[in-house]
User: Fold this.
Amino acid sequence: MGGKMLTEERLNNLIDEYGTEILRLCYLYLKDYQLAEDACQDTFLKVYSNFHKFNKLSTEKTWITKICINTCKNYLRNPWKRKVTLENKELIQNEISDQEIFVELEKSELFNSVMNLKPTYKEIILMYYYQQLSVKEVSQILGISESNAFTRLSRARQFLKDKLGGIIYEES
Assistant:
């Protein structure tokens, strides 16, 4: 598919396949549901306009995840978006079912511990455990070696283990 334009039908298939995961990843990065929706939409607009650059050196999921993470990082760097996020915190509590799941997730000690990690450790935990990407895929997204990705993951696990008193809950 490298070098080809993305059809609207194919874009809709990608959104159906990865949209929920990308929205959740945006929310985990941005901690604001409305901002996450905007970032998710921006991610797929970038996928649409840059699909001709996709060179199949990674999977579509890895490529889209990388675009998503870069989009979220740009949102976090933008002072206007941060200000809007702070002003709209009350609006997070509306009747969106996905949002209720996110609010419940925010209450967990593990989630809060992950969100308080340094960005380099937080992103690797989110990608490996939440997005269920392999260490190889994570290394491609972050542009680091597999051994560096594994080291970051190990350190992040250790920080979480120390923070949570030696108890790490593994989901199967």
Remarks:
- The two ends are 34 Å apart (CA to CA).
